[in-house]
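User: Just a sanity check before I run the rest of the batch. Below are the structure tokens for the first item. I only need the designed sequence back.
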């Protein structure tokens, strides 16, 4: 696997962690949040690039795979939010304006999917917005 593909796969894995952190902000992941994530991956993320995982599948599915795996673990989301930030700071070139907008829209869609955004989700979205702005 080429280094750029490896980093691309890692980006999608970190995005799965980020979106888990957003869904877990209120300490409860609801089925509608999972559904919204999967819809967004299929509708928006599959067309982003041509990166594939080691099985020849679109790497964007790594978002769903990691998100699903983390649901089994039921860990605190802040750790994963921080992991995403660290990766994004090291690989700023991967977070272009198109990707940044897509990250933001996906995070918002997850947070708004169940009875609107609550205080915990608003806080993590504000942190995400500030962080994405800092990468510009």
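Assistant: Here's the designed sequence for the first item:
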């Amino acid at each position: 696997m080429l280094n750029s593909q490896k980093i691309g796969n890692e980006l999608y894995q970190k995005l799965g962690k980020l979106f888990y952190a957003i869904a877990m902000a209120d300490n409860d992941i609801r089925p509608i949040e999972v559904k919204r994530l999967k819809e967004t991956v299929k509708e928006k993320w599959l067309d982003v690039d041509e990166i594939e995982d080691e099985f020849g599948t679109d790497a964007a599915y790594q978002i769903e795979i990691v998100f699903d795996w983390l649901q089994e673990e039921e860990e605190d989301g802040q750790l994963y939010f921080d992991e995403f930030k660290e990766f994004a700071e090291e690989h700023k070139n991967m977070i272009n304006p198109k990707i940044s907008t897509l990250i933001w829209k996906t995070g918002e869609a997850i947070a708004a999917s169940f009875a609107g955004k609550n205080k915990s989700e608003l806080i993590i979205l504000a942190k995400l917005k500030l962080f994405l702005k800092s990468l510009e």
